[in-house]
Amino acid sequence: MTDIKTVTVLGTGVLGSQIAYATAYAGFDVVAYDIDATALDKARERFDVLVATYEAQVEGATGGKAKDGLARITYSADLAEAVKDADLVIEAVPESLEIKRATWQTVGESAPERAIFATNSSTLLPSEFMEATGRPDRFLALHFANRIWVQNTAEVMGTAKTDPAVYETVVEFARSINMVPIEVKKEQAGYVLNSLLVPLLNAASALWVEGVADVETIDKTWRIATGAPMGPFQIFDVIGMVTPYNIARTSDEPSQQKFAEILKRDFIDQGKLGVASGEGFYSYPR
Description:
Elements: E1 6-10, H1 14-25, E2 29-33, H2 37-57, H3 65-71, E3 73-76, H4 79-83, E4 88-91, H5 97-110, E5 116-119, E6 139-144, E7 153-157, H6 164-176, E8 180-184, H7 193-209, H8 215-226, H9 232-239, H10 242-249, H11 254-268
Parallel strand pairs: 1-2, 1-4, 2-3, 4-5, 5-6, 7-8
Antiparallel strand pairs: 6-7
């Protein structure tokens, strides 16, 4: 059993909302933080969708259990207030080093001494901003995959300063919210999952933007040849377009810069964000 009782999740975007809801569904009290009332209204909509999703896809979630999880979530647009009673703070704010450092500085000044701090960052190493917390020994990465009720991995990755007891507590917490803990033994950009996945996605996007093959052909090739349930562009749709865009636009590879331009112009600016919006590289029922 974990000593963690109250969890604050910072950021209620696609993955942040999933983390918050999965934690509440598992029986924890959750504070969902975002920057303003508009963002929190969108979070409420995401949580309602997650309740319906769990009822349809998660065994045992019917009969009111999914809605019970929703009742354990409270909302805040005041960062200091949101973390003042937290045993664990999970950060899922935008992938900007400046934003993360500023966020964690406020958290470190406001959270109780017992609190454990975890970042869900997928592209930044925790050591790059651990000092902003003021408590690097209580800070580490806890990285989730999208659609966490199905792809239920939780990668736990500390820094050279992370207290081993804190690491073990987070491993146990991950297990307690129905995740499979993936213990990463040292800092690695991309953890285990993205170290495997990103080269695949980069190769697929390069094949497409260079005109080697179309989206359907690339996906079909991967599915048939490997037995995988999804092709890379189907995976892009699950991830959503914003994170791949942010990664591609900072790449030195011309094919990735071209891919970023296409994602921005033809997808993000058109509201085609993938599965979450009903359309991306493919269309999905709403």
